[in-house]
Amino acid sequence: MRFIYVYDPLCGWCYGFTPVVMQFQQLHSGDMEFDILSGGMIVGDNRHPFSTMTAYIQREHTNVEEMTGVKFGPAFLEKLLPSEEMMDSEKPSVALTVFKTYQPANAISFAHDMQHALNYDGLSLNHDSTYRKLIQKFGLPEDEFISRLHDERLRYETNQEFQLVQNWGITGFPAAILDTGKQLYLCARGYTPLDRLQQTVDNIIQESNRL
């Protein structure tokens, strides 16, 4: 049984949903495998400065806070958000690919750290220095990690991940898939509270066992 979390590092609702997935992982660490895939929400020609999203995010972030309990920090809302820094999902997605080569079991935790660095601390995920700070708590080799962050092969792997998610028909984030070994089931689309996620997974497992 494998739980696949499909997210994007720049997605505000994903920032709210990742803590739910982390709780779910703690509850099921003994009976389920966990994976996290990047969806490629803002890449290529879709990239744009944060400032172009200021009005939308200033309005929407309160909904995310009220529904999920996460907080957006002043450093993000007042400094990074109005800036000309580019919104680009690729580099943090490559960073997750790199991280998974070291500590796949902690990948969801690392994804959350990236989201917190962006949405609370207001740190750009386009800068190598951000990752140097984030990987320290995991004890990873900094220079090696940064070197691999610029590896074309890992960039290609990451873009293949975007393509896989697209092939599954997932165009909105967050989402989650349960792989029963027989079939893939969509078990979350958009923010989903823990109790509802658990109920959906239980229903899928019961249905799968009947097949």
Structure characterization notes:
The protein is α+β, with helices and mostly antiparallel strands and 211 residues long. It has nine helices and six strands, in the order E-H-E-E-H-H-E-H-H-H-H-H-E-E-H. It has helices at 12-28, 54-68, 74-80, 90-102, 107-119, 128-134, 142-149, 152-167, 194-210; strands at 2-7, 33-38, 48-49, 86-87, 175-179, 184-189. Strand 5 and strand 6 (184-189) form a beta hairpin. Helix 1 runs antiparallel to helix 5 (107-119). 36% of the residues are buried. This is DsbA family protein. Residues 6-200 form the DSBA-like thioredoxin domain.
Notable traits:
single chain; 211 residues; alpha+beta; four-stranded mixed sheet; two-stranded antiparallel sheet; 6 strands; 13% strand; globular
Question: In sequence order, what are the helices and strands, one letter per element?
Answer: EHEEHHEHHHHHEEH
Q: Count of helical segments?
A: 9
What is the mean predicted local confidence, pLDDT? 96
Counting helices, strands and paired strands, the structural category is: alpha+beta
Strand content: 5-15%
Shape: globular
Protein name: DsbA family protein
Pfam family, one: DSBA
Organism: Chitinophaga qingshengii
Domain DSBA-like thioredoxin: 6-200
